[in-house]
Structure formats: structure tokens, C-alpha cells
Design brief:
about 190 residues, alpha+beta, Arc Repressor Mutant, subunit A, 2 domains, 8 helices, 5 strands, about 50% helix, about 10% strand, MarR family transcriptional regulator
């Protein structure tokens, strides 16, 4: 498993949730958001890496193929358990130097009013176009800031995951409850 696999799985969930909200959703082969080309473009990952990522997720049981469309469908329960119990050990995060970037973790809009930061510095993903100054943390993969800016729901998921990776038990509890509510909102 690679760190970008988590982002691919969360992007698939974001697409599925958008599809479930839109009753008039229809996709042609040219603009299929589940295609390797579309997923790659939206995440800043090559088509071959998207394919490899989906295959790793299928092999690990974190995803399965939908019968009628053959789109990958995320096993949300398994992903949720992995995020809560293993993510911070498999992909640890260590705050770095001050930089400009996109707020994540407790400083992201999805968590800003739920958890108050004890320090002055927020956590950010380094991004040259970022408007916030804070302690840099390495995102799960290098193009996360770009992907997050293109998909607000994906941004929420990734920021919550960083809160789980960075937080103390109280913050982790709040972030994990929010993640559970978001992941299973359309079930």
C-alpha cells in the first residue's frame, strides 16, 4: 500500500457521494469521472499509478468492483478501521518548519470550529500559492494541495485524516466521529 492509495479511495468516495446527491447524474465514456484519466487529472497522479493504486486496494479488500459498471467501490468500513487504527503508524506525520500553504488538520475549515488549537501555529500542506502561514506537514502525497482545492469534499476527508494522524486522544475522538459521519452519510 502507498500513501496515495488513501487519497484515491477518498476521491472515489467523494465521487460516489456526489453521484448519490445528484439524481440527474449521467456520465458518458468521455467524461466518466471514474476513468483512469479523470481520476489521474483530478488527483495529479499518472493513469498508470491510479490503475496500480486501485489494484492494490482491490487486492487488500479496501475496494471491490461494481457489477454493472465495473467502477471501483470503496469498502468504507474497512477503510474507516484502517484510518483509525493504522494510518498514523503506516504513514506517520512530523511537523516541520514554518511555511505558506493550505490549512489541514485542526486548522482546516471542516474542523476549525470543532477543535480549538492550543498553539499559535496551524498545520499546513506546503503550497507556493497558499495564503496561510503555519507548520508544514508532508501531505500523503505531493499533489494533495492541488487535489484538495479542486474537490472540497476530498479536502475535508484529507484534513480530518491529518487531524487523526496529528491529534491527541481527545482531538482524535472528535475527528474520528466526524469522519465516520461523513463516510457513512449516504448509507
Amino acid at each position: 500500500m502507498k500513501s496515495q492509495d488513501i487519497a484515491v479511495l477518498l476521491k472515489l468516495i467523494s465521487l460516489q457521494q456526489r453521484e448519490n446527491k445528484s439524481e440527474n447524474y449521467a456520465s458518458s465514456d468521455e467524461d466518466d469521472p471514474y476513468s483512469m484519466r479523470s481520476l489521474g487529472a483530478s488527483l495529479g497522479i499518472s493513469k498508470s499509478e491510479i490503475n496500480n493504486s486501485i489494484n492494490r486496494s482491490l487486492n487488500s479488500g479496501l475496494a471491490r468492483r461494481e457489477w454493472d459498471s465495473s467502477h471501483p467501490i470503496v469498502n468504507r468500513k474497512a477503510l474507516f478501521k484502517f484510518i483509525l487504527n493504522g494510518l498514523k503508524y503506516v504513514f506517520p506525520v512530523k511537523p516541520g518548519a514554518l511555511a505558506r500553504g493550505l490549512p489541514t488538520g485542526f486548522a482546516a475549515p471542516v474542523l476549525q470550529e470543532k477543535i480549538l488549537s492550543a498553539g499559535e501555529d496551524i498545520f499546513i500542506w506546503p503550497d507556493a500559492n497558499g495564503s496561510h502561514k503555519g507548520q508544514a506537514i508532508a501531505p500523503l502525497y505531493k499533489n494533495i494541495p492541488l487535489a484538495a482545492q479542486q474537490d472540497a469534499n476530498l479536502y475535508d476527508y484529507l484534513a480530518i485524516i491529518d487531524a487523526i494522524r496529528l491529534g491527541n486522544p481527545r482531538e482524535v475522538k472528535i475527528a474520528s466521529e466526524l469522519l465516520e459521519n461523513k463516510l457513512f452519510a449516504d448509507d
